[in-house]
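Suppose you are handed a protein chain with no further information: no name, no annotation, nothing but its sequence. What can you learn? This example shows the usual starting point.
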Amino acid sequence: MSVLDCCTPCATPQVVNVDGPKGEAGIPGLDGADGTMGAVMGKTVSPDPASNLTSAAQLMMGLAGSITLTGLTPRLVIIVTGVMWATTASTGQIQLRYGTGAAPINGAAATGTVVGAAKNTLAYIQSSQFGLCGVVLGLSPGVPYWIDVGLARSATLGRITDVDIVAIEG
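A reasonable first move is to predict its three-dimensional structure. Written in structure tokens, the prediction is:
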């Protein structure tokens, strides 16, 4: 830091350097990845899944999202967003699921491995936006994994629309 010394009369101002106290060193950062990207899947589900009958148990929506890991990492980040609809006010739940083999069809009994806890919905009429996300560990490279959600409704027909799925290896 430079300070202008104006206390001594002179023809030109004098500059005096003054160092302040040193701060403490910060915490070292993590070593970053080399920038290589693994498998990435993005899908807008079209057409929207059909309505399901009222069911207290989750029924699969038949989204048919799919990704095969390259082997870069055994991790998968999954994000599913959309809008839940009901014909009358009722509560329910929605939950992210994945698995191997044939993807479930719309209205099938809940199957696969759950990702996180089921998200409970408040009583609503018309629509309610949702967002589900999770990180899945220990997956095998070269194996195709399907991605879907299970939906349960307490007292009315329920469905989801405007669904987007993003899955990223890493």
